[in-house]
Design brief:
384 residues; alpha+beta; Double Stranded RNA Binding Domain; hpI Integrase, Chain A; five-stranded mixed beta sheet; 11% strand; elongated
């Protein structure tokens, strides 16, 4: 028998699993705010939102989504959307089945507009769909894509790409299917339960001091000096590429030698310490006459889009291989640690939200640790 309660996160989190000796597989709770909205809890403690309704004289039900993937507010909105269809004589389940919604149509018409309105990385999502995922799933009806197919794609991708890349694709698929459930186009997520591949983030490319000097010298003669100075600033500060290219003049405090990053990858504001050489690079730039950005692009009022071509030319002249722009950030950390900086200091210099991320550089600090250990030994064994 269904129990009547006002659903909320606090209430749902406190609800126990269905007793193992109970005859019914799930316990059921009815929301007091939206008619027909139910929460079911099975004997393993998993919780699901359902909508129960009557259409054409028949009692029907449809799963809205798993609790955790769907919160109470979203479940109510989805239930109300389906009840509005019912009031017009439309069965929401039949609408979903008959819609013929393909994966590509869902992504183009629904997911990407939402992503561009809510995510800073929407461009990256768009690229993954167009370059990889549409080829595999684009023409398929959304509801026909199976878990086995996604698992096969995830496994096959690591033969061509790094495990981290395959994991980003899987995470994007999971998010897309969760939203399809939320918006009423799917009943279950076929990507649920597929495990991420193990990632090895310890293998990083660092420039030696000699290599960094060679790159610096070549950048000084590069034809595109705007892009070259952006690369120089990344090397001198360890900031990410997007942080550098989107830097504005209003964010630079010349007196305090600080660079304000209003929004970083973690979504937090942070300040970058500017050395005198870094400030000198900034002062060599065109200035506010060319727009609000430190590194102006070809279009008026827009920042430099990418420094990759300049970077590749400089690497070729400097005789450097197997290097990405992001490796300049690793190089900054490497040189800092090898010249006495602690992991704590590097964490804050790079703006890592967690020290776990900085631990990838721990092996570089071994010589510093050895020096510290020798100092302690010298103190203990010193004779007066």
């Amino acid at each position: 028998m269904s129990k009547l309660i006002r659903l909320s996160k606090r209430v749902i989190d406190a609800l126990p699993p269905q007793p193992t000796d109970a005859k019914a597989r799930e316990s059921e709770y009815s929301d007091t705010e939206v008619s027909g909205l139910k929460l079911l809890i099975n004997k393993q403690g998993r919780k699901f939102f359902y909508l129960r309704y009557r259409h054409a004289g028949r009692q029907r039900s449809m799963k809205l989504g798993n609790y955790g993937e769907l919160d109470v507010a979203d479940a109510r909105l989805l239930a109300l959307k389906h009840r509005a269809q019912l009031s017009n004589g439309i069965d929401p389940q039949e609408t979903i089945l008959e819609s013929g919604m393909t994966f590509r149509r869902f992504i183009d018409d629904h997911y990407l507009p939402h992503a561009y309105a809510s995510k800073r990385s929407a461009n990256s999502d768009d690229s993954k769909f167009k370059t990889h995922l549409f080829e595999m799933f684009g023409a398929r009806p959304l509801a026909s894509i199976s878990r086995q197919e996604i698992q096969r794609y995830h496994d096959e991708l690591i033969s061509r790409r790094a495990p981290a890349t395959a994991n980003r694709h899987l995470a994007l698929l999971k998010r897309s299917f969760n939203l399809a459930i939320l918006w009423g186009y799917l009943d279950t997520n076929p990507a649920t339960g597929i495990r991420m591949h193990t990632e090895n983030n310890q293998s990083q490319r660092f420039l030696s001091i000699d290599e960094a000097k060679r790159l610096w010298t070549v950048l000084s003669t590069e034809q595109n000096q705007i892009a070259a100075k952006a690369i120089k600033l990344m090397l001198l500060t360890g900031v990410r590429r997007e942080e550098a290219l989107k830097a504005r003049w209003e964010d630079i405090d010349q007196e305090r030698l600080l660079w304000n990053l209003p929004i970083t990858k973690s979504g937090r504001q942070r300040f970058v310490m500017l050395s005198e050489p870094a400030l000198a690079v900034i002062n060599e730039l065109p200035g506010t006459n060319c727009g609000p950005y430190l590194f102006p692009g070809a279009k008026p009022g827009k920042p430099l889009n990418n420094a990759r071509k300049c970077f590749q030319r400089a690497l070729k002249v400097a005789g450097l291989v197997h290097l990405r722009i992001h490796d300049l950030r690793h190089t900054f950390a490497s040189l800092a640690i090898n010249n006495g900086a602690s992991l704590y200091e590097v964490q804050h210099l790079l703006g890592h939200a967690s020290n776990k991320t900085t631990q990838r550089y721990a092996h570089l600090a071994s010589e510093n640790l050895r020096v510290a250990s020798n100092r302690v030994s010298d103190l203990v064994t010193a004779t007066t």
